[in-house]
Amino acid sequence: MYRIPILQMGSFLLVTIQVDMQDQTALALQDDLANKISNSGARGVLIDISALEIVDSFVGRMLAGISGIARIMDATTVVVGMQPAVAITLVELGLSLQGVRTALNVEKGMDLLRLSGGENAFGRR
Amino acid sequence: MYRIPILQMGSFLLVTIQVDMQDQTALALQDDLANKISNSGARGVLIDISALEIVDSFVGRMLAGISGIARIMDATTVVVGMQPAVAITLVELGLSLQGVRTALNVEKGMDLLRLSGGENAFGRR
Q1: Using CB atoms and an 8 Å cut-off, which of residues 80-119 of chain A contact chain B?
Q2: Where are the domains of chain B?
Q3: Fold of A6-116
Q4: CA of A107 to nearest chain B CA: how many angstroms apart?
Q5: Which of A89, A116, B92, B123 is the most exposed place for a label (fewest CB within 10 A)?
Q6: pLDDT(A36) > 90
Q7: What are B79-124's pLDDT values in tens digits?
Q8: Is any Cβ of chain A less than 8 angstroms from the Cβ of B125?
Q9: What is the rounded CA–CA span in Å between residue B19 and residue B4?
């Protein structure tokens, strides 16, 4: 089965989503991320979706799910690189990505994670 | 056509290769990387291949090609995350990834790029 690699950079984890997600892949990613957060003690998760041209309710739920799992494990999730057209479509569809933090690109996402720092200031959103 | 996203982090670019490369995708990646190096002034390129279970001569040539292009543009390329089985197979096949620098994971690759610093000490390998 296809597994999305998770890269560790210091206290952050980085996931680049490049292909349309299937159920199995999404579940495996949630599993792998939870394990990786537990093993590495990571405080932040960056999910890059710049390659996605469509974000439907399934992907939205998956992002919210990962965000929720990470939050329970005391890590902050930031979704980065969303294409403008995707943002427009999300709003038109009424999908608000509740509880998911976003940033324009990886660098801004990292800044956000560094700012949230040890207090995990966004943990209660 | 499927394009592999290139993430910028400071003066480094990060590419995560997750699927078996086709000719078109490989060519597009070389193009995109050359443009991105030119636009961003990046000094280092990290290519993560931890998701690849097979690295054949085509992928080997592609990595060497990217490395060569980056070198001409004064950037150092480091291939990271190679699976042990891939390394074994490469040697058995007699593919030595000539001119391609490697590191165990993204973090060590970044350290290597930082060490190579402004002088691009590895540029002449």
Answers
A1: 81, 105-107, 110
A2: 6-116
A3: Transcription Regulator spoIIAA (3.30.750)
A4: 6
A5: B92
A6: yes
A7: 999 999 999 988 888 888 887 899 999 999 999 999 886 444 444 4
A8: no
A9: 9
- Reported as a single tens digit per residue, the pLDDT across B27-82 is 999 999 999 999 999 999 999 999 999 888 888 889 999 999 999 999 999 999 99
Q: Write the DSSP assignment of chain A as a string of letters.
A: -----EEEETTEEEEE--SPPPHHHHHHHHHHHHHHHHHH---EEEEE-TT-S---HHHHHHHHHHHHHHHHTT-EEEEE---HHHHHHHHHHT---TT-EEESSHHHHHHHHHHHTTTTTTTT-
| Total residue count of chain B as it appears in this document | 125
Q: How confident is the model at residue A116 (pLDDT cuts 50, 70, 90)?
A: confident
Q: Is B106 within 8 Å of A4 when comparing Cβ atoms?
A: no
Residue type, B25: T
